[in-house]
Known about the structure:
CATH superfamily of the largest domain: Winged helix-like DNA-binding domain superfamily/Winged helix DNA-binding domain
Radius of gyration: 23 Å
Protein name: Transcriptional regulator, PadR-like family
InterPro entries: Tscrpt_reg_PadR_N, WH-like_DNA-bd_sf, WH_DNA-bd_sf
Number of domains: 2
Distance between the termini: 43 Å
Mean pLDDT: 91
Strand content: 5-15%
Low-confidence stretches: none
Domain Transcription regulator PadR N-terminal: 8-77
Largest sheet: 3 strands, antiparallel
Order of helices and strands: HEHHEEHHHHH
Amino acid sequence: MSIAKTFLGLLESGPRHGYDLKRTYDERFGHDRPLAYGQVYSTLSRLLRHGFVEVDGIEPGGGPERKRYAITESGVADVDLWLAQPERPEPYLQSTLYAKVVLALLTGRAAAEVLDTQRAEHLQLMRELTRRKAGGDLADQLICDHALFHLEADLRWLELTAARLDQLRDAVGAVA
């Protein structure tokens, strides 16, 4: 996710301090991975340098001065462009799990156990996300659904791969 583009979108509703941007970002998008303050201010500095935001005001505080940032016309145009562009689907063609299965086959280890262990991990995460979804607001429900659909696709792949392990073993010339 582009933090810079997200900040620009959040600033369209009005000027904000870096702390406010971080808090809103974390509430809406960063439940599992909140932003570090350093990342917030380095992103704002970059947006300022590129002319997408401007300092709308400076307020003295107990510590450093608090800058309030506002989006510029260039920033609005950048958000428009970003929102109009579709995201590239991520086909996961360099899968670590696939590499583990092939390496297990190549080294004479039990590839089926690798798949079973991964299946258990996926199912555990699916249970956690289902609980989170049940107690969450609409935003939480939607993000959990997105993750659950991806995990379901992974489970289908795990099942398909398990069914084709003998063929895969032959294809990679693995130890029997």
